Amino acid sequence: MEFLYFLLIGAISGWLAGQIWKGAGFGIIGNIIVGIIGGIIGGIIGGWIAGRLGIGGGGLLWQIIIAVGGAWVLLFIISLIKK
Questions:
Q1: What span, in angstroms and rounded, lies between the C-alpha atoms of 19 and 49?
Q2: What is the DSSP secondary structure assignment for residue 22, as one 8-state letter?
Q3: Per-residue pLDDT tens for 40-72?
Q4: Tens digits of per-residue pLDDT, 5-28?
Q5: If DSSP codes are grouped into helix, strand and coil, which group holds residue 57?
Q6: Of 2, 19, 21, 60, which one has the fewest beta carbons inside 10 Å?
Q7: What's the pTM?
Q8: 47 and 56 in contact (C-beta within 8 Å)?
Q9: Burial of 67 (0-12, 13-18, 19+ CB in 10 A)
Q10: Are the C-beta atoms of 12 and 64 separated by less than 8 Å?
């Protein structure tokens, strides 16, 4: 069940990051992949930063926000590589 939540959070965060970063969408499958990878990046980096700042939470919404941030960073890096 946690794996399904992981995919759902990845799909939502990838889609949201694609909406924020105009022109960088990769379709639903690509956005899920970007969201999952971004969720990992966001979980590591964003979680560390949030922990240092003393902010955060453990709820679903917080996980999506962190994953969107990580996916957005990943889209930024991909756009630099594509150029």
A1: 24
A2: T
A3: 776 677 677 677 777 766 677 777 777 777 777
A4: 777 777 777 777 777 776 556 676
A5: coil
A6: 2
A7: 0.66
A8: yes
A9: buried
A10: yes
Residue with tokens 């980096």: 45
Structure tokens at 74: 């990943």
Structure tokens at 32: 């899920």
Pairwise CA distance, residues 17 & 28, whole Å: 12
- State the amino acid at position 31 in one-letter form: N
3-state secondary structure of 67: helix
In angstroms, the CA 83 to CA 81 distance is 5
The identity of residue 52, as a single letter, is R
